């Protein structure tokens, strides 16, 4: 096994004993066996790593608010989004059902000059800034906590771990790891953007934490927000292949770090969280296969941390109160979210 080349994001992390590129399934099996939370919170658990967030954690997070500045970490929800139709994922379609024109012309049927506007939106739940729920990904036919996938998610939805179970849970300490900005100088870049295909390893995360300082220490129950800079790039240059194409992201070798850090969730500014192309030939999102069904870890995708990152860089304070509640859509395996960071 080779060691990670920190200058290029290629090669294998020294933290990973099981990236065997010639044996993807064997690597996945070994990683799942070594890093697994099934039964940790009982056989009936539906929250996974959100169990790490408790009342004391929320009080810790609330104490981080110093200035009252608030930052939305959401991309826009509109037809100008990144989706291109893969697996029937489209951008949101927003339609007005009542308008000011109708009100002016008296077409609404209300008395005494009363008028109003109504609207409707149609969209896949994974089309923009979102959480992956615990029913979103399976590993060899098993869902979170070892349940049979077919017993969990049917045509009726997620009957066990539907996203509504997390509706009041995600208020905690957030930590921004601006990996793009931290690693940029070592890559010969001054734009704060990692190149597509760059695999972020535990060594890179540790390097980022060291450079950012003590407020970046990752603790039990945190939500970690990873900024790669890819969203900055596509915001400037156009979407291109943002949805499903090459991207910087977490290496498969970060699975042990995700497990032992006891974080409640992790989110990135990319479409698919992990590095793309994936690190195994013929594989599809193998880190998802470990993180969601085996660790019970909530994954956020397509977040926009750019404004927050500027504020954090300005005063070297990288932790904050984060609220990121999913919509309580009964039986859903994911949800749009408007994460709010308060400093």
UniProtKB/TrEMBL annotation:
GO MF term set: arylformamidase activity
Compositionally skewed regions (Polar residues) per UniProt: 1-16
InterPro entries, per the entry: KFase/CYL, KFase_sf
Domain of life per record: Bacteria
Protein name: Kynurenine formamidase
GO biological process, one term: L-tryptophan catabolic process to kynurenine
Lineage, broadest ranks: Bacteria, Bacillati, Actinomycetota, Actinomycetes, Micrococcales
Pfam families for this protein: Cyclase
Region (Disordered): 1-21, 74-93
